[in-house]
Design goal:
Blueprint: H1 2-10, H2 16-30, H3 38-45, H4 51-58, H5 64-79
InterPro entries: IS701-like_DDE_dom
Domain Transposase IS701-like DDE: 11-97
Protein name: Transposase
Length: 98
């Protein structure tokens, strides 16, 4: 199913490098890691630093609206129900320290 999502949204990335990086980013976001910041996601993907992840989110050419539409359509196709709703709750993590 993961590869189906990537196939669907992959056409909205102008170059192969961002397509590869978005795959690595999504795998990192789905991984059981304590933190999900640029450094941790980059390390999980085997990168030396967060530059590629940051470049994807900051300057890479991709159609964010089309990706959002395709992801929504995918979720509706696979999880949708006539009477259902989707609630996204990003609760975050408690900060350590004072």
């Amino acid at each position: 199913m993961f590869e189906d999502v990537l196939t669907r949204i992959g056409a909205h990335f102008a170059r192969s490098e961002p397509r590869r990086t978005v795959r690595e980013l999504l795998l990192g976001l789905l991984a059981p890691m304590e933190r999900k910041n640029g450094w941790w996601l980059a390390e999980h993907a085997g990168h030396a630093g967060p530059d590629r992840m940051q470049r994807l989110l900051r300057t890479a050419v991709w159609d964010t609206d089309a990706v959002a539409r395709d992801l929504r359509a995918f979720v509706v196709e696979h999880l949708g129900h006539r009477d259902g709703i989707l609630v996204a709750d990003e609760t975050g993590y408690l900060k350590k320290g004072v």
